[in-house]
Amino acid sequence: xxKFIENIGDFFSSNYFDEDFVKKVHDKSGYxxxxxxxxxKRISPLKDKYFRYKQSIIEGRLRTxxxxxxxxxxxxxxxxxxxxxxERNNYNTPFHLSENEVIPIRHILYKGDKPHLMIMEIQxxxxxxxxxxxxxxxxxxNEEGDTTSEQRYxxxxxxxxxxxxxxxxxxxxxxxxxxxxxSLLDQSERPHYIMVLGxxxxxxxxxxxxxxxxxxxxxxxxxFFESTLGKRQYYSLFYLLLSKEMLSPDSELVLMDQxxxxxxxxxxxxxxxxxxxxxxxxxxxxxxxxYFQKDVLLQEFDESDDTFEQEVKDDCLNIIYxxxxxxxxxxxxxxxxxxxxxxxxxxxxxxxMLRDLEQTQLITDHSxxxxxxxxxxxxxxxxxxxxxxxxxxxxxxxxxxxxxxxxLFDNKKxxxxxxxxxxxxxxxxxxxxxxxx
Length: 437
What we know:
Layout: E1 5-8, H1 21-29, H2 33-43, H3 46-59, H4 64-81, E2 95-96, E3 101-103, E4 107-111, E5 114-121, E6 169-170, H5 175-183, E7 193-197, E8 201-206, H6 207-210, E9 215-219, H7 220-228, H8 233-242, H9 244-247, H10 255-296, H11 306-331, H12 343-348, H13 351-357, H14 365-369, H15 372-386, H16 424-436
Parallel strand pairs: 3-6, 5-7
Antiparallel strand pairs: 1-9, 2-3, 4-5, 7-8, 8-9
Helix pairs in contact: 1-8, 2-8, 3-4, 7-8, 10-11, 10-16
């Protein structure tokens, strides 16, 4: 999987941003395979420039003002590599939100009379020592009402990059709020894209997706590291996603817009497939529930009873929703719902472990008709309902799970399935239906 790009908040649908993403972008760009080497040559010379710049930040004993200037100089080299006119900028004419409130915008690129792309700069995100640098949501241009030049954030620290009249106020002061204000402008004034340069990190924001927490993050150092390992196609991928030629071309054809459209279509197809998968999975569980009650528990029931039929259907749908929730929780380790990085959890409790077994052929009668899948899933659902060592605060090295306070995992809310067990081959088929989708 591509490591130098973070697809935050599913900027691209998760099934579209996969192992084939590089090929999708290259194919959509219109460039031939012979052209890729030329694109890669536009980015690869940045490697030495970047590490010289990083060294100056870490070892140069620079003032904040000078670090900002060195970062600005590196951004010029980066922008030039991507086809922008890095030396020319809009800092002499700050962008006005009101008569007295401005936002420093380095570049504004237009399509006709409408802003299409705005490029902003923030302080470098290079880690120095043990302390993590303030990120996109913590950084600011200045502290309101404080004029001390020694503080962490002050507009004077940008004086080697831009000067803004004392009659004007940089507001909002916090970077992410600046982006939000730009995203709320009238349609004729707001840009389609915002690129934020932070030294070793580049953010690409589409304003329509900003308020749902979706954007792309590019780690330049990771790009160089991965390319060193033989993935030079990442250089051309980086160029195709961020270059002026592709992101803000003179023509109406914007590559990022095409990729976004394909991503949307792909997500829609998955939704259709998932709907069919859920219907099949519910049907499998319902039939198995009737079999177990009739042939194992020897219970009598009237299959023509509409209430009974609805209760069975609701129970099975509840179980399928549990599976979908776990699939999602295990795929998003950043949410910290399940301890997916813990080996004990992975091997003993995870749905991912069962998904691997889903591909194992069940040959013997015991493997087909046993209840290993059922017992594993029942234990996982129990842990999610009640929690596991959630209050121990690191006193025990074992994993912990915070309980899910939801009727979804409450067995008392089930109507018919409390005593029902599902055989391995049925669970295997069910997991296949859902994981395939």
